[in-house]
Amino acid sequence: MKDLKDIHPIGWTIIIGTMFGRFSTSMSIPFLAIYLTNVLHATPFEAGLVIAASAGIGILASFYGGFLADKIGRKIVMLISVFGGAFVFLVFAFSQSVLAFFLVNALNGLCRSMFEPASRALLSDITEEKKRLLIFNLRYAAINIGVVFGPLVGVVLGSSKTTTPFLFAFVVYGLYGLVLIYQSRAYAKLFRKKDSSERISLRGAFHVTRTDIVFLFTILGVLFCAFGYGSLTATFPQYFATLPGFEDGVKISYLMSLNAISVLVFQYPVVRIAQKFSPYTVLIVGNLLICVSNLSMAFTTHFFALGMAIILFTIGEILVFTLVDALIDSIAKPELKGTYFGAMGFSQIGNVLSPIVGGWLLSYFGAKQPLSIFGVLVLVTLLGIPFLLRAKSVLARKEERIVPKVA
């Protein structure tokens, strides 16, 4: 409890804002693919493209957003992106075509990918090094607290048939922005950009991250993990929505809420155990668990069995995503924290490709060949393991050069 008391008020604002932000978006975004196919009569492939638009635009925007957070300061980037997000959700509520949803979801990805690296860099700035794993895990827990209740409320509001819930997200993001304005004035010194960041050029920042071999292989490894993870919000609901008993999205929403609840239940004990091992070993195990879970979905439609698969998936998710922020924080050069967090946005290529590939597989094979669909997704996800092994090997050699072995 003492560690929680030591967290800065701005840290709590980001954590609580993240919780309410994810609650409001999870009321609607997880149902977007179903809404597009059932209401607007989009094909699975078109729905996959719309879902992928958010992550797609975020790939380059995340790096640039992180660079700007180092260059001009966290405050400006965070405020522009959070108020931009409020505008996006307002437009979402009144969109009426597949093209409109594609464009607005792309803008959604732009705002989110600008905000995320800036906020994580700010959390690193205001937190002691020994407590950064704690605050990054609290942020991840906040995401899942929001996601526990969001889909359930989304079902009640009929999010698979209406865009009205997007208005709630508009209000939440607007209020979040107003609180950040107040705190940026109350703690103005913490929001000032560091003097060293003024000398950073975009080309220089890109060169530094591009030539960091450990970081590059880490990005590639996490990219394929993200590909496997992306099936939960795109291919999984689209596939099961075609099956008897799943058409209304209720069981799907229960399973997605189970995913979030499982994160809250298992995150603390799993992270405590994972801390005893190499971060890359943990990422590899997480990748394998996601693969096993995805593959098992091809063999059952029993709700209890699917629930067990989701729990297994969740443990893999925890192993991959709760430690990666702290890992990147330890790899990053101090004056380029925002840039490194932003460059991790390139790993979202996995989230871009996952719904597109999944949608294409659904269209090509059809729901009657689940093994072909999920089998391909698993094989692609497994490609991340060689990159993670390579990152682990290079980092070990670096550490051996820095700290020579004593004879």
Commentary on this structure:
It is found in: Cell membrane. Its main location: membrane. InterPro entries: MFS, MFS_dom, MFS_trans_sf, Sugar_transporter_CS. With 407 residues, the chain is mainly alpha-helical. It has 19 helices and no strands. Helix 7 packs antiparallel against helix 15. The chain is globular and about 55 Å long.
Quick overview of this protein structure:
This is MFS family permease. With 407 residues, the protein is an all-alpha fold.
Describe the protein's topology.
Elements: H1 2-5, H2 9-26, H3 32-38, H4 44-71, H5 74-94, H6 98-125, H7 132-157, H8 166-186, H9 188-191, H10 202-210, H11 213-230, H12 235-240, H13 250-274, H14 279-296, H15 303-331, H16 337-343, H17 349-365, H18 370-382, H19 384-402
Shape: globular
The count of helical stretches stands at: 19
Parts with pLDDT < 50 across at least 5 consecutive residues: none
- Give a count of the beta strands, DSSP E runs of length 2 or more: 0
Question: What percent strand?
Answer: under 5%
Termini separation comes to 43 Å
**What structural class do the secondary elements suggest?**
mainly alpha
Mean pLDDT: 83
Largest sheet: none
Name the helix and strand elements from N-terminus to C-terminus, one letter apiece.
Answer: HHHHHHHHHHHHHHHHHHH
CA radius of gyration = 21 Å
- Range of helix content: over 70%
Pfam family, one: MFS_1
GO molecular function: transmembrane transporter activity
Transmembrane segments: 12-35, 47-69, 136-157, 163-182, 213-232, 252-270, 277-297, 303-328, 340-365, 371-389
Membrane topology: Multi-pass membrane protein
